UniProtKB/TrEMBL annotation:
Keyword Hydrolase carried by entry: no
Protein name: Carcinoembryonic antigen-related cell adhesion molecule 1 isoform X1
Classification via SMART domains: IG, IGc2
Transmembrane annotation, as ranges: 425-448
Keywords (A to Z) from UniProt: Disulfide bond, Glycoprotein, Host-virus interaction, Immunoglobulin domain, Membrane, Repeat, Signal, Transmembrane, Transmembrane helix
Compositional bias (Polar residues): 467-481, 491-514
GO biological process: negative regulation of cell population proliferation; regulation of immune system process; signal transduction
Region (Disordered) residue spans: 455-521
The UniProt record lists the keyword Signal: yes
Domain of life: Eukaryota
Residue spans of biased composition, Basic and acidic residues class: 457-466
Species this chain originates from: Mus caroli
GO molecular function: protein tyrosine kinase binding
Cellular component aspect of the GO annotation: cell surface; plasma membrane
Amino acid sequence: MELASAHLHKGQVPWGGLLLTASLLASWSPPTTGQVTIEAMPPQVAEDNDVLLLVHNLTQRLASFAWFKENTISTNNEITRFVTATNETITGPAYSGREIIYRNGSLLIQRVTKNYMGVYILEMTDERYRRTEATVQFHVYPLLLKSNITSNNSNPVEGDDSVSLTCESYTDPDDITYLWSRNGESLSEGDRLKLSEGNRTLTLLNVTRNDTGPYVCETRNPVSVNRSDPFSLNIIYGPDTPIISPSDIYLHPGSNLNLSCHAASNPPAQYFWLINEKPHASSQELFIPNITTNNSGTYTCFVNNSVTGLNRTTVKNITVLEPLSKPTLKVTNTTVKELDSVTLTCVLNDIGANIRWLFNSQSLQLTERMTLSQNDSILRIDPIKREDAGEYQCEISNPVSVEISNSIKMDVLFDPTQGGLSGGAIAGIVIGAVAGVALIAGLAYFLYSRKSGGGSDQRDLTEHKPSTSNHNRAPSDNSPNKVDDVAYTVLNFNAQQPNQPTSAPSSPRSTETVYSEVKKK
Ligand SMILES: *[C@@H]1O[C@H](CO)[C@@H](O)[C@H](O)[C@H]1NC(C)=O
Ligand SMILES: *[C@@H]1O[C@H](CO)[C@@H](O)[C@H](O)[C@H]1NC(C)=O
Ligand SMILES: *[C@@H]1O[C@H](CO)[C@@H](O)[C@H](O)[C@H]1NC(C)=O
Ligand SMILES: *[C@@H]1O[C@H](CO)[C@@H](O)[C@H](O)[C@H]1NC(C)=O
Ligand SMILES: *[C@@H]1O[C@H](CO)[C@@H](O)[C@H](O)[C@H]1NC(C)=O
Ligand SMILES: *[C@@H]1O[C@H](CO)[C@@H](O)[C@H](O)[C@H]1NC(C)=O
Ligand SMILES: *[C@@H]1O[C@H](CO)[C@@H](O)[C@H](O)[C@H]1NC(C)=O
Ligand SMILES: *[C@@H]1O[C@H](CO)[C@@H](O)[C@H](O)[C@H]1NC(C)=O
Ligand SMILES: *[C@@H]1O[C@H](CO)[C@@H](O)[C@H](O)[C@H]1NC(C)=O
Ligand SMILES: *[C@@H]1O[C@H](CO)[C@@H](O)[C@H](O)[C@H]1NC(C)=O
Ligand SMILES: *[C@@H]1O[C@H](CO)[C@@H](O)[C@H](O)[C@H]1NC(C)=O
Ligand SMILES: *[C@@H]1O[C@H](CO)[C@@H](O)[C@H](O)[C@H]1NC(C)=O
């Protein structure tokens, strides 16, 4: 205690000697204190902020402790010293006015600059003049200023140019990391995107309009983060092929023609309208009120980008169509007998209209009995059947209008004498035919066996049996040696309509077979 005070009273002179002694003493006897550690709070200090060098495990029995700057303990490096006995704080040559020493050993340094960065030593002297030391280090970083993005090409052209963006940080580049984002999404290297100079430079190869941005460059060091103002590229592109809206191409007379043209382009395109290839207006919109059919024609939108010098056009054909007038549906007789034919005629004034036939208000399903002619304006049903009875209409349409004719109700009278072949009648015919074949076969066999008496002829006859059902037609057998021998017959038979179809199956007598000719070659 006394020594320490005495020494302090003597001033700065004996420091070097004492220090030598101290280190010798320290090496002789290990410190009785626990392991002293010092922590810089924070370890990375932003310029102009305070740092506290916090001493842990300092024993209370120390006589004094002193802080030194730099890596060596020397008189010139002493910042400040605290003497426990007197509660006295003494400043040394390295004291800058910003340091405060606490009785617990900790040192506060206020408003640090980069110059304060480095190693600090705490030298502790106990009551027996034994000295120990501990060191600590901290780093001072500048607070980052707002960075600025610069481009090496202010008007790059899409598909032609590459652009380099550089993040200017205006701060000591030490330990700065750069982070780029576009439209809020962080960017990393890709096909057309390269980073260089430690990510300070972003290069966009072969820019497209989608590279416009905005870009933000974020700079970081251990103590601060800053962002540039958003930066957008003025990418020159287009014009693209213009689009004319609305898309309608058919209009009524008397309506207004109101067309608008749009083409993506930077700088914005200049717009021109041509009607039937003649210049009409230099505007993006085209308005013609109360149009007539004379306004039909080709409408061309011409766009030009004054910087790229490129031109594009889109042509739209506008047709002004008179609305259709109501068509008239005609028929000679609305009442027809079944199996008769009927012809419905759709009478219209307008050429070029599309015709659709309606049956009971639904689109008519055409059957093979129906035929359309004269651009679908005539519907013929032949033969007409009971299921064809109903309401008929014709509908005409063009792109601007639809008209439906009057409705015609067709009645189909069922006439039993004209009725189709009923099941009974068909059965009668079949039975008659079979009977006829049997009869002919018998007759032919009789004639043939009478003439030649052959044994193999039965096969020939059998082969020719089908011919008997072919009314008035020669058989199609072209086997020459048989034709010579074989007689064939031409037969007529009439299947008479039974008066009552249901009685037919049991009445083979209704079939009369007439043997008309027997020919022999
Ligand atoms: C204090 O010293 C003790 C004993 O040496 C040690 O266990 C402890 O970790 C030290 N504390 C700090 C904060 O260094
Ligand atoms: C030193 O200061 C502390 C607290 O401020 C006090 O308790 C102590 O008595 C003082 N010692 C002397 C010698 O003045
Ligand atoms: C030492 O004292 C200072 C100032 O009172 C305080 O901020 C710090 O936490 C103390 N250090 C320890 C290790 O107690
Ligand atoms: C950023 O850079 C541009 C061009 O180099 C310059 O005009 C502008 O003043 C800079 N902005 C700042 C904040 O330094
Ligand atoms: C640039 O991109 C355009 C299309 O975006 C492509 O046609 C052209 O070939 C590209 N040029 C180069 C050098 O990659
Ligand atoms: C800008 O930088 C890119 C990439 O380095 C380069 O290809 C391009 O030619 C530069 N543009 C100008 C106008 O210097
Ligand atoms: C550059 O940025 C990429 C992410 O885009 C990152 O992975 C890389 O570590 C950065 N390089 C440097 C030197 O900061
Ligand atoms: C731009 O992005 C849009 C939508 O992602 C894409 O459809 C278009 O093709 C891109 N244009 C170019 C020139 O890359
Ligand atoms: C539209 O034009 C027709 C003749 O072309 C004319 O009779 C009619 O009054 C015009 N309507 C308007 C609203 O101008
Ligand atoms: C585009 O049109 C302008 C007139 O508007 C003309 O002077 C120019 O030569 C055209 N450019 C091309 C590439 O056709
Ligand atoms: C527009 O009309 C012109 C001339 O009448 C014709 O050559 C061209 O094919 C038409 N274009 C379209 C899309 O109909
Ligand atoms: C229509 O046809 C029916 C049946 O064929 C017939 O009775 C009627 O007289 C015909 N009416 C006219 C007006 O021809």
